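If you are new to this repository, start here. Below is one unmodified record pulled from the training split, so you can see the exact layout before writing a loader.
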Amino acid sequence: MQRSAILGLLAAGLLATSMGGCLIGSNERESFTGKEVSAATFNRIEPGVTTADWVQGTLGEPTSKSTLADGTEILKWSYSKTKASTGTVLFIFGGSSSKTTAGSAYVEIKNGIVTRAWRTDD
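And here is the target side for that same chain:
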């Protein structure tokens, strides 16, 4: 083998090893289900002051609604958010990852006035 051919192969090998972790493509997607209530909006709810009309007008239709024996209503807004990403790496196979977050906002209403409000994050 000629010396120039050997040097060319060595150079190609060095280049390939140095580029082994180069990211050459990626893709991110987000998907939502339900209704996420922002902290800023949720924090405007004041038990004993905020009306049921304000809650429904501001937050929209709840995901679910329950009525207790004493007439108290529990309104619930639930959401799920998934972030998925995929990537292709030169000389290494592609990979993917996803992360799902979920949560709910609850509002308890009696006689048209909010009596309690709380959030959960799953």
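Two things worth knowing about this chain: The helical segments are 3-18, 39-42, 52-59. The radius of gyration is 27 Å.
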